Amino acid sequence: MVGPRYASTVRQIIAWLLVALFVFPIYHWVTVAFKTPKEIFDKPPNVWRFTPTVENFEQVFGISLGFGFGDVREVLPGGGNFYMAPRVWDSIVIAVFSTILAVTVATLASYALSRMRFRGQQHFVNWVLSTRMMPPVAVAIPMFFLFKNVGLLDTYTGLILVHSLMNLPLAVLLMKSFFDDIPKEIDESATIDGASRWLIFRRIILPMAKGGLAATAVLAFIFSWTEFLFVLTLSQGSIQTVPVASSTFVTSIGTAWGNMAALGTASMVPAFLFILLVQKHLVRGLTLGSLKQ
Amino acid sequence: MATVEYRNIVKNFGAVEVLRGLSFQIEPETFTVLLGPSGCGKTTLLRLTAGLEIMTSGDVLIAGERVNDVHPRDRDIAMVFQNYALYPAMKVFDNIAFSLQVRKLSPDEIRRRVGEAAATLNITDYLDRYPKELSGGQRQRVAMGRAMVRDATVFLFDEPLSNLDAKLRAHMRVEIRQLHDRLGSTSIYVTHDQIEAMTMADEIVLMHDGEIEQIGTPDEVYDRPANRFVADFIGTPSMNFLSGEVVADNGSPAFRAENVQVSLPDSVPATSGRKITCGLRPADLSLSETGSINGKLILAEKTGADIHLHVAVGDRNIVAVVPRSANVAAGQTVRLAIDPAKVHLFDAVTQHRVN
Ligand SMILES: Nc1ncnc2c1ncn2[C@@H]1O[C@H](COP(=O)(O)OP(=O)(O)O)[C@@H](O)[C@H]1O
Ligand SMILES: [Mg+2]
What we know:
Number of helices of chain A: 13
Oligomer: heterodimer
Number of helices of chain B: 8
CATH topology of the largest domain in chain B: Rossmann fold
Structural class of chain A: mainly alpha
Bound molecules: adenosine-5'-diphosphate, magnesium ion
Number of domains of chain B: 2
Number of strands of chain A: 0
Radius of gyration of chain A: 24 Å
Strand content of chain B: 35-45%
Helix content of chain A: 55-70%
CATH class of the largest domain in chain A: Mainly Alpha
Largest sheet of chain B: 6 strands, mixed
Distance between the termini of chain B: 37 Å
CATH class of the largest domain in chain B: Alpha Beta
CATH superfamily of the largest domain in chain B: P-loop containing nucleotide triphosphate hydrolases
């Protein structure tokens, strides 16, 4: 007979194994960032014991961490550059502003879609969603010419707009589902109390939808943070986000694995911080206390 | 201090007719209860009054003014929703104060009014809490407070007590009624609970399937139900119905069915052979050696205060409520009697009251 305690132990072991399976590649990637080029190619790979070095980070971020000083602006064998601090900045600017824009527009739109009734409403919702079904690569080239003509190529504004646009459909649907969960009696009660639609939205509904806002913001941020194709086609070097910048470590002569891992590792930090920041709002039960039990 | 008048209210949801042409008027300062089984359209009628729903046809008049096109905001009504619909992101104080803040009253005035309402409702200690930190009964009070501070001309209540336990419900019935008397407002109160209706109402509007079955005071509705539906709906245990016919018994009218003969008041035309449904309230029946309703006692249910007798009369079961002192045992034959004035007669076909 299998006792409940035994079963729970087995469950725990399986859970830990699964976690290890998912975490190991990240761990390995992080260790690569702290290895010298020689150690990176040790065979068999030395996962646990190596001499950590911050050289990769020094090169990528152009700052001396006190353990030695490399030429931070060193030109890569392929003609590129190790110095990536501005790329992280670009990523932050684009991700933050496109998230703000997408969440703002989506919140307003989805509240209207959730509460107001107009002709063809369901078609409108379907249409919003369908825009997300189009493969981005299908619009990348037209978008390039469009941007070129209106002068948005290689600008923050352009990339922020594109990332917001890509995020809107999901953000709208996600926020709509949150608003749909808020009983309409709450709006109605506030209406009878004399509040205007805007006041109801701002004072009553929005605070209830905080969890939805947080979830939507996380999704939008991560999308922008990891997006590759649009940045690749719509920027020409003066602005470049981390994913595209990472690809420049792959050159015709060789790949700067250590530097690439350093940039990748470092780029996890802002996304991680952002998620920590909004995480406390990611709560369930948004109507808690409003209704009869 | 306002009348509310409904003229030919029709409301369809798609193809479903929910309200089928209601017309009635509610007098100022009365406590009117819309009573009826679930799904009969009570909430819909209340929402139409508030302006939250648009009627298919008909007019609603508040204080003599047609309000069909008046926004809910401007109708000067207060409403307690069936699910309370508190604002979860606001503390209790702000929940109650919200309508006053929106109307830009001075902070002092707001504090005074909220304080007053909270004191009346006994929730002063909870003003600083969030709704989620309250019990069901406390939430109900907050919902009441939100309506109270409004000073509205018409108060609408949608089954506000339906989720409370029996004791709290009985207590809140009294409180709501007292509140109404103190505010001197016009109140419309929706419920499916006939006890609530009987205890609280000045006037009961009994609805069924989107139509009005009867309008009257609790006494009128209880003593002279307009039709069989009303008779059945009001009163616990519910009225007994027997099908039979009117006969002339020595020249005076009587009701006859299997094992049953009940004298009727002389006002009933003694047209022999007329098919009729006879309604007898359990509490109006009494045990009597000379009783003309004969049956066999199946079960004597003791409720504490009295005894409910389940008696098989012919092929029907009827219930009689008798004092606890009655000495009865299951299986015995019993005779029941009733005062002719308390017999309710309904036409067997139309189900309308005939006496
Ligand atoms: N928004 C709506 N859409 C469609 N049908 C509705 C809607 N609201 C109510 N109904 C229907 O109208 C009828 C009356 O509902 P309601 O007024 O809520 O009844 P009550 O409050 O008396 O229980 C019900 O059959 C219900 O299904
Ligand atoms: Mg209802």
